[in-house]
Write a structure and sequence with these properties.
The complex is a heterodimer of chains A (320) and B (584). Chain A has helices at residues 2-29, 35-40, 46-56, 62-76, 89-124, 129-143, 146-157, 180-214, 217-224, 229-257, 261-267, 272-281, 285-313. Chain A has 320 residues and is mainly alpha-helical. Chain A has 2 domains: 22-76, no CATH class; 96-319, MetI-like fold (Orthogonal Bundle). In chain A, helix 7 crosses helix 8. With 584 residues, chain B is α+β, with helices and mostly antiparallel strands. Chain B contains 17 helices and 22 strands. In chain B, helix 8 runs parallel beside helix 9 (308-317) and helix 11 (356-362) packs antiparallel against helix 13 (435-446). Chain B is globular, with a radius of gyration of 23 Å. The chains are: A mainly alpha (320), B alpha+beta (584). The interface between A and B is large, with 49 and 57 residues.
Chain lengths: 320, 584
């Protein structure tokens, strides 16, 4: 197990290096505004552009810039400074991380709490009205664009602009450290919107897996032994059906920790996704690089956790 | 202030953003001018003091450092937290008045020296908390040339100060062209006779004092972080801690302004009343949601561009919650550096053909601006001299809806015998969210042009159109906000041959007419306001006559407020003035 873990950790490092190199390469390959010229303003003298370029370290060859970036990152956990605001990128990301963690954490709990029971009920009541209703709603929830769903939720339920003012709307986010009640209230609508499509997807996935599992021989055996149906489904059927769900949850959590851009934007939750979006709009490489690396880190770690869980469950994986 | 490109309104680049936002508004009829009744945005006597004003904007400020600030949105903050030498009163965008300065600037007869006396009584906010002197203004202007600060406009207006070269190179921090014979006198010495124009630029936030002994350590870094540790001289300050760290600013999230305990108030001669106690500014979100929150809520004003649905909703249902302020212009630059637009007759044909009423319609209708007949917009010095609303009678701009017959005549004069263009294809770069770009494209095609058209983001469009080497022939979504209300600020950067730069170029037509350049040089030296306005008006007409670009639109910028807000617009900036706005 230790050897397996070591191999996987090496892969994590290699992947992150590759991601950082690719981001750098993309930024310098694709046409975008010259950060030094943008920073130097209107009709700048070549002298000023050169000075700004030198100050930002943009006068060096790309591989030198990349080396310096990685060196500062590894030795000092320093992501550099935003070209746009001059603010340290590390501080900006750490400042945004709690909001992203809050949004993702709550949404995961919600979509699992909704999606799994619905999936089970649909599978158990297959082709009856609860199944048809649940799967119909799931189809709608999966099809609805998140941005649109967010706006509809605001126009219906936000306490400032909603037709049925029930919950705090956009711009209401408060950090949990400042006001836990306001934090909770401000995130209910974003959680519901973010969880809607995921819950629907998980319900459909679990339903399909469970239906497949319930047709297996060991389920027939369990029933033949006289076990109650509830126990057959939850103890024997679910155990097999839930495994793919674990994999997908790991990946989804990793992706969302990298930023749920649309929901963060609609509800103005100041998370990493919005930071990344703003940085892309302004060609702010250090912030783009920082947020991409953070996102990649979360995805890779989530993958690692899933793989380790598999390896723990199934020893064959370790030697594969 | 600049253009769509240069001076950014909170969404993208410069007025470009304004353009985009208004374009995005794209009204369906465009004729919903309901005949006034809108909020005036003017200061009121006896407004109530106290309360917390809430600002909501989709975008962040560009740079929080007053020495770097350049966007329209950022000036909302700097005009409340800083005290420049001169400023415009909100209701009068034409006449700068002394604020930190004691009196008008004195420009020497040879135009090479500007002398400013400053008032006593102003102090820096904590933790510096000491009296402001002329040396602080000198340092503020000097640091604009530091590569670590790289102010975006000092090169243009104060670049002729003696001794800027070594400062830009980083060899010295002492700018020899600024002298401070005593604590209340500032003398600016220029290598050319640009003093009259440079004096106008002293309204900009770079002239707000900065204490060198405090700021030096921040400015010494590769990128100055003085903005995150700034001190204030205005009625408000960004909330800070005991060390001076501006904890009230979280980039992309929030700005908190509180009263500056060191501000001396009216007794110092400062005209800002500073009604509200506090300003809470939330950044981010969907512009339409923000607009609805402002209209439905309390204590709120918009920070950045108001989208079309909100303009329409407010203009029809709650007029007292919306104001419109004339500001800036839009035009279609035609690249004169190469064929076919090096031929004045081809340019005039294009100008004659463009349906400016249609452009007005797709960009929001009559509420959001007027069809332009030249470049200086209403309210700018020189507007009347350039022909006022009607223009000065150039035939190719006589019909706002376009004149295809006249266009054909001009094309025949240019050698296209059948009155249709049949030369090589031209290149055009528009923006993704601007329906006006599509309108212009259609109209070029009607004249027979084959057009290689690309639709890009604002930033990418700027990257293409502002670099002459890219050889783009037409950029249909261009607008301009002046840095200060003067013909120089409107026309020099956009139409002077000397302003053509290999990068970040703002003269997109690449007009380089020695006669016009010389006229601009002469006008830049004039100190008498009326004479100066007259001169720039004549220059505007010369540019219009040369058809270097097609003037399309003079913007009226919309702003919205909650019902209980008595919002006051700084007309020179087309945005709210936080120091004058109050709550009921």
């Amino acid at each position: 197990m230790a050897g397996y873990l070591a191999r996987r950790l090496l892969w994590v490092v290699a992947l992150l290096l590759a991601v950082s190199a690719i981001t750098f390469a993309i930024f310098y390959t694709l046409p975008s505004a010259d950060p030094a010229a943008m920073r130097a303003g209107r009709q700048p003298t070549p002298q000023l552009i050169a000075q700004v370029r030198e100050n930002l370290g943009l006068d060096q060859p790309v591989y030198v810039q990349y080396w310096r970036y990685m060196r500062d990152l590894v030795l000092h956990f320093d992501f550099g400074f935003s070209y746009q605001s001059n603010a340290p990128v590390r501080e900006q990301i750490l400042d945004r991380l709690p909001a992203t963690l809050s949004l993702t954490g709550g949404a995961v709990v919600l979509w699992l709490a909704i999606g799994l029971p619905v999936g089970v009920i649909s599978a158990v009541r297959r082709r009856r009205w609860p199944d048809r209703l649940a799967m119909g709603l799931a189809l709608v929830a999966i099809s609805a664009p998140v941005y649109w769903l967010g706006l509809v939720a605001l126009y219906l339920f936000a306490d400032d602009i909603g037709r049925f003012p029930l919950l705090p709307g956009a711009n209401s986010y408060e950090p949990i450290s400042q006001d836990p009640a306001a934090w909770l209230g401000s995130l209910v609508l974003p959680w519901l919107v973010l969880a809607a499509s995921f819950a629907a997807f998980y319900a459909r996935l679990l339903r399909a897996n469970l239906l497949e599992a319930m047709s297996e021989d060991y389920i027939r055996t369990a029933r033949a032994k006289g076990l109650p149906e509830r126990q057959v489904v939850l103890r024997h059927g679910m155990r097999a059906a839930i495994t793919p769900i674990v994999t997908v949850v790991g990946l989804d959590v990793g992706i969302l920790l990298g930023g749920a851009v649309l929901v963060e934007t609609v509800f103005n939750v100041p998370g990493i996704g919005r930071l990344a979006y703003d940085a892309i709009r302004t060609a702010d490489l250090p912030v783009i690089q920082g947020t991409v690396l953070f996102g990649a880190f979360f995805i890779v770690v989530a993958n690692l956790v899933v793989d380790l869980a598999y390896a723990w469950i199934d020893p064959r994986v370790r030697t594969a | 202030m600049t253009s769509t490109i240069l001076r950014r309104i909170p969404v993208g680049i410069g007025i470009a953003l304004c353009a985009v936002a208004i374009a995005a508004c794209g009204s369906d009829d465009g004729d919903d001018d309901s005949g006034g009744g809108f909020a005036s945005g003017l200061p009121v006597e006896g407004a109530k003091k106290g309360g917390t004003l809430k600002v909501v904007s989709a975008s962040d400020v560009d740079q929080i450092d007053p020495g770097q600030a350049y966007y329209q949105l950022t000036y909302l903050v700097t005009s409340a937290t800083q005290t420049p030498l001169y400023a415009y009163k909100p209701e009068d965008p034409e006449t700068p008045v002394p604020v930190l300065a004691e009196s008008d600037p004195r420009v020497s007869p040879d135009g090479r020296t500007v002398t400013v006396k400053i008032r006593s009584g102003f102090r820096f906010s904590p933790p510096v908390d000491r009296a402001v002197t002329s040396k602080d203004v000198k340092y503020a202007l000097t640091r604009g040339f530091f590569p670590s600060v790289a102010n975006q406009y000092v090169q243009n207006y104060l670049g002729a100060l003696e001794g800027t070269g070594p400062v830009v190179e980083g060899d010295t921090r002492e700018l020899s062209g600024i002298q401070t014979p005593d604590d209340r006198t500032l003398v600016l010495r220029f290598t050319t006779d640009i003093g009259a124009t440079a004096a106008q630029a002293l309204v900009l936030p770079a002239s707000a004092p900065v204490p060198e002994e405090y700021a030096r350590r921040f400015d010494a870094k590769k990128q100055s972080d003085y903005g995150f540790n700034q001190v204030a001289t205005g009625p408000y300050m960004i909330r800070n801690d005991a060390q001076g760290k501006a904890v009230g600013y979280q980039p992309g999230r929030r700005i908190e302004l509180v009263r500056n305990p060191s501000w001396p108030g009216a007794e110092s001669g400062d005209f800002r009343p500073a009604y509200v106690d506090r300003v809470d500014w939330t950044i981010g979100g969907n512009p339409t949601v923000i607009g609805r929150q402002v209209l439905n809520g309390r204590d709120m004003i918009n920070g950045d561009t108001v989208p079309a649905p909100i303009v329409k909703q407010a203009a029809t249902r709650s007029k007292e919650q919306i104001t419109f302020t004339p500001l800036g212009n839009r035009f279609i630059p035609l690249n004169m550096s190469e064929p076919p637009f090096d031929d004045v007759n081809v340019r005039k044909a294009v100008a004659a053909a463009i349906d400016r009423t249609r452009l007005q319609l797709v960009r929001g209708g009559k509420l959001t601006g007027k069809v332009a007949t030249h470049f200086l917009p209403p309210g700018s010095p020189g507007f009347e001299a350039a022909g006022g609303l009607e223009g000065s009678g150039h035939d190719f701009l006589a019909k706002p809806e376009g004149d295809m017959q006249l266009a054909a005549e001009y094309l025949r004069k240019a050698g296209f015998s059948n009155g249709r263009y049949s030369g090589p294809a031209i290149s055009m770069v528009g923006t993704e969210d601007d329906p006006g770009s599509q309108v212009v494209l259609d109209q070029f095609r009607r004249l027979g042009f084959r057009v290689n058209y690309r639709s890009l983001s604002q930033e990418a469009m700027f990257g293409a159109c502002a670099v002459p080497a890219r050889k783009v022939d037409v950029c249909p979504n261009y607008g301009w906000l002046p840095d200060f209300n003067d013909g120089y600020a409107y026309l020099y950067g956009t139409f002077n041959g000397k302003a053509i730069a290999p990068q970040q170029n703002s003269n997109w037509s690449q007009l380089n007419d020695p006669r016009i350049n010389a006229a601009m040089d002469r006008a830049a030296r004039i100190t008498d306001p009326e004479e100066r306005a007259e001169a720039w008006g004549r220059i505007d007409d010369q540019i219009t006559a040369a058809a270097a670009a097609v003037p399309t639109y003079w913007d009226d910028v919309p702003n919205v407020q909650s019902r209980n807000v008595r919002g006051v617009i700084a007309r020179w900036n087309g945005a709210w003035d936080l120091s004058f706005t109050s709550l009921e």
